[in-house]
Amino acid sequence: MTDTVLLSEEQDQVALLTLNRPDVMNSFNFALLSALRDKIESLRFRSDIRVIIITGAGSKAFCSGADLKERVTLPPEKVKEFIFTIRSLFTSIEYLNKPVIAAVNGFAFGGGTELALASDIRIAANTAKMGLTETKLAIIPGAGGTQRLPRLIGRGKAKELIFTGRQVDAKEALEIGLVNKICEPAELINECKKMAAMICETGPIAIEQAKYAINYGLETDLNTGLAIESNAYWVTIPTEDRLEGLAAFREKRKPVYKGK
Catalytic residue among 57, 65, 134, 144, which? Predict the structure, then answer.
């Protein structure tokens, strides 16, 4: 057990959060769940942080899911509390008002894959392996996996992976759309930071509204989704950032957005 289960560093409007339990493959216990929840909430209204990257300590694992050594000591009511806590945390990440990038640096099984699914963008090391392996333990994914995986890669492929508990390597994860991009392990954080830097060049309010429109619009029919998009667009019209973007385009310079 490490003293600090979650590491955090901030640079250039990006917060890098590292799950720091490498001795147990960065698996989730109550302490790590609480630390990640508290950190995410502390960043929610920080205008100086535009993007969050989540990764795992070491080179072996992103996150292997729940800490099964802790799990076997828990009575059924505490297991329910754990599942409720992790599901709520991942939902808060999915609907956070700023982009979250999962830097999948190694094994991501069970809750590890579910954490990646709750993130907006997934970039993986080419040595990574992912999978919802819960059925092999006679349970099912309980932190959103049965819902987010089919929405991302399609119903048939999601059922195959969940029913079999099969792991996929980084190449297959890219082919089926489970991750956005793969790269050499040594380049993973840099690739995530490059993506984050591109996002940081855009308008903060625009990004918040785009994420809102995508997340909520996908859960509705097309006409309702278009209405959600329309309302989100209206939010951007009276902003100083929109006027700054037009001025910068006219003056052929880089815009300076302030989130206003």
Answer: 134
